[in-house]
Every structure is written in structure tokens, then in C-alpha cells.
Amino acid sequence: MPSSTSASPVRVHPDAPQVRVLPDAASLGAAAAAAVAGALRESLDRQPTVRVAFAAAPSQQPTLAALAAEPGIDWRRVTAFHLDEYLGLGPEAPERFGAWLRRTFFDLVPLGAVHLIETGPDAEEAARRYAALLAQAPLDLVCLGIGVNGHLAFNDPPVADLSDPADVKTVELDEVCRRQQVDDGSFATLAEVPRRAVTLTVPRLLAAGRLFCMVPGAHKRDAVRRALLDPVGAACPATALRTHQDCTLFLDSAAASALPPEVTRGG
């Protein structure tokens, strides 16, 4: 098995990810929600239940708001997961990603089941419990973003393992990642941001049937450029999106501003 520092851990799909560029965050959210809703309807037409994992971040809010308003989705047959959770916050802390997703989306639609990462006093046990829930059936869809340091979920460079044998693990968050949480308005100061978290690994994300990645904002333009143009590897974990056979990347014009025209043509 290739190591996490390999330049190409698995085959890069020449047509993945598909890149769509929208004028602004609101139109990005509408377009992404329509695509996710279409995929949900297709999946529900051919199988009894659908399993979806969601990222929690302000960048995802326009998509989730539009998705909650999409018609014709039998949410009672959808099971929801999320990608990561802080360690060290109390169970009722509003900064928890599970709490953010409940406020923003999970409590707005009649989901059949919601599985939150309940960290508790034993982080390793929490990771094992969540991995067991995920292992019960494949994830059909993942809705995610890209961090300013190129992370996927909480898999930060340069230690993200693109060939990780685990499905869920505990990680140390790098300072760039932690500072992003302050810049996003989730915490007032860097000192308040937890240093550790539980996250789905990169291979677990890539095992899903379809990926929808929503990345608005000029502050993400370098991460987007690296994700699409740098060698696939742990220095920019988001490069791993190029190894998935069915990934669509939704950008606004600001996030796409560092890309050459040939990457965004037709978006």
C-alpha cells in the first residue's frame, strides 16, 4: 500500500473533480443544493435508504439552507452523519459541529436518523463507535468543503494519511486550521479553539459513492488552486479529490480566481 507521502497514492481520474464556478456564494449554494437533491432523489428511487455525511462550517450554510428547501426528498429514508468533531468541548457547547449542523440543517428536515460524533471522556472509544456506525453500510453521498490549509474534514497537512487504514481517528489540529475557526467566527480567540478532534479519514471520505465539495470565498483560492493543480499527496489533502470517480467541486468566482481558464472552462 502506498504511503501517505506518495505523489500518487491511487489513480487520478482525468475528469474528476468536475468544476462548476458560480458568481457568488448564494448561487453556489443553490446550484450545489440542486445537485445534491438530484442525487438524493436518484438514490431514493433505487434503494430503501440513503446515507449522507455532511461537513459543518459557515462555507456550507448556503448549500444546506437551499437543500432544506428542496422539494420531493423523502428525508425519512435518509440517515445523516457528519465529518468531524472537536475534543474538549462540553456536550452542550454551541461550537460543537454536531450542534451547528442541528441548528443549520438536521433539525429543519425530518431525517430518518442522525448519528452525531459523541466524543465523551474517551476519544479513542468515540472514534471506534463512530467507525462502527459507518461500517454498517456504505455512504452514498458526502457533502464537504476544503480548508484554507487544504484539509478535508480535519485531516490537516502534512500529516494527513491518504492511505489511512482507519475510518475514524483522533487528530491534532494545526495552527492554520485552528485559526480558520476564529476567522470563520466560530470562536473569539485562538486560545478557545480545541487542539484535538475526531475526524473521518481521507480514505473513508473517498469511499462514498458521490462527493459534493462546496468552496466559496477568496480566502480559499490558494487551497483550491493547490487541490486542483498540485501533486496528489499529504501536503494538500484536498488533492485526493482528484482520485475519486464522481466528485463535483462548486466554487464561487472568488474561490476560483487563482485557477487557469482551462480548469474552469465550462463550469
From TrEMBL:
Keywords: Carbohydrate metabolism, Hydrolase. InterPro entries: Glc/Gal-6P_isomerase, Glucosamine6P_isomerase, NagB/RpiA_transferase-like. The keyword Plastid does not apply. It is an enzyme of class 3 (hydrolase). Residues 23-246 form the Glucosamine/galactosamine-6-phosphate isomerase domain. It comes from the Bacteria. The keyword rRNA-binding does not apply. One of its GO terms (molecular function) is 6-phosphogluconolactonase activity. This is 6-phosphogluconolactonase. It comes from Actinacidiphila acidipaludis. The lineage of its organism: Bacteria, Bacillati, Actinomycetota, Actinomycetes, Kitasatosporales.
